[in-house]
Design a protein that fits this description.
CATH superfamily of the largest domain: Ribonuclease Z/Hydroxyacylglutathione hydrolase-like
Radius of gyration: 21 Å
Largest sheet: 7 strands, mixed
CATH class of the largest domain: Alpha Beta
Number of strands: 16
Order of helices and strands: EEEEHEHHEHHHHEEEEEHEEHEHHEE
Strand content: 15-25%
Strand order of the largest sheet: 1-2-3-4-5-6-7
């Protein structure tokens, strides 16, 4: 790994500030009322006589007030001309409906996979957790107490923390080139963290807006969930991660969390290595049939409670599923209807065993 990771900015924007980071590109940093993260980075790209907004934040009164400050004081009174959302998660799409109403006639731009998923979740919001979700967690090894906690968590967060997802949108696809102001931005599609995550790369500026696909200090959440219980999100993520190695080493990466950085190839390698280590640790720990909850301490050293335990479990399941798909692990249902996993071979290659 010859490339290093550097952080070129010695400060972060204050709430309601739009801080320049490249020609015609500004950084907006919003608070985030979600477990585990306290902020999200949003981006403004100068677009002729207006601006393009990339990602929008969660729906809260505070964030709406901060956006109003940005619109009235930080961007010279110029209007927003379009909204681009990298993917469906509420910290990225939550305010999109409001911004498209705030500036009538503008379009929401997303990939079809992300828009349709966001729209479906918003419409599907239910007062109770559906039975197929509870069954997914039961098969995954959640006991009765944990299932009751999931039931009590409710199932309507999409509507609580997001404006209605616009009913119409402008589709983005892999390789599309979008003209924003004076520059072209190429769409690069990432998978695994979400169905069809859009990253935007501008060759002229050598800037990549990476969303959650490449983060500098934390690894994106890669989880197996009830909506696609036989999927392989980690395989999708690792495959789509490779494309970022082709970008110039001096590319400025604008991520959704943490700080802008340079060194996208090095970070892609680090993320791939991170998951290889975790797969090795799992393989070493599963000499005999093992349910998912028993491997959580192998992957996570901190105490896990509530929502964090659910997210950690989905990450563990994604790694276990990856091993089942590639043949390095086996899976069976035990007499209680709970999945158990076992290493498929008696030896694990030494290169795959390690600690970070």
């Amino acid at each position: 790994m010859t490339q290093t990771i550097t952080f070129p900015f010695d400060r972060r924007p204050e709430p309601g500030e739009a801080m320049p980071v490249a020609e015609g590109v500004r950084w907006v940093r919003m608070p985030m009322p979600l477990a585990g993260l306290d902020h999200i980075n949003l981006w403004l790209v100068e677009d002729g006589d207006g601006w393009t907004v990339v990602d929008t934040g969660v729906k809260t009164d505070q964030i709406q007030e901060l956006w109003e400050n940005v619109f009235t004081r930080e961007i010279g009174g110029k209007p927003v001309k379009r909204v681009i959302c990298t993917h469906f998660h509420i910290d990225h799409t939550g305010m999109a409906g409001w911004i498209t109403q705030r500036f009538p006639g503008i379009e929401l731009w997303m990939t079809f996979g992300e828009w349709s998923f966001a729209r479906m979740l918003w419409l599907e919001a239910l007062p109770e957790v559906p039975e197929h979700v509870l069954e997914f967690y039961r098969r995954s090894g959640f006991g009765a107490e944990a299932i009751e906690q999931i039931k009590s968590s409710g199932y309507a967060n999409m509507q609580k923390q997001s404006w209605e997802v616009p009913r119409a949108f402008r589709r983005m696809t892999e390789g599309d080139v979008i003209r924003i102001g004076q520059h072209d931005w190429k769409i690069m599609i990432g998978r695994g963290h979400s169905p069809e995550h859009a990253c935007l790369y501008c060759p002229a500026l050598n800037v990549l807006i990476s969303g959650d696909q490449v983060l500098p200090r934390i690894s994106p959440h890669i989880g197996l969930h009830a909506n696609e219980p036989e999927g392989n999100p980690l395989g999708l993520y690792l495959n789509s991660l490779k494309q970022f190695n082709s970008l110039p080493s001096e590319t400025l990466v604008l991520p959704a969390h943490n700080d802008p950085f340079v060194g996208v190839g090095a970070r892609a390698d680090q993320l791939a290595h991170h998951h290889a280590v975790r797969l090795g640790l799992l393989g070493a720990a599963m000499e005999d049939w093992t349910p998912m909850p028993d491997v959580l301490p192998v992957l996570f050293r901190r105490q896990l409670e509530g929502f964090q335990r659910i997210m950690a479990s989905s990450e563990a399941l994604a790694h276990l599923q990856y091993m089942v798909v590639d043949g390095t692990a086996q899976r069976r249902l035990d007499a209680d209807g709970v999945y158990q996993f076992r290493r498929a071979t008696t030896e694990i290659p030494p290169a795959e065993i390690g600690h970070e």
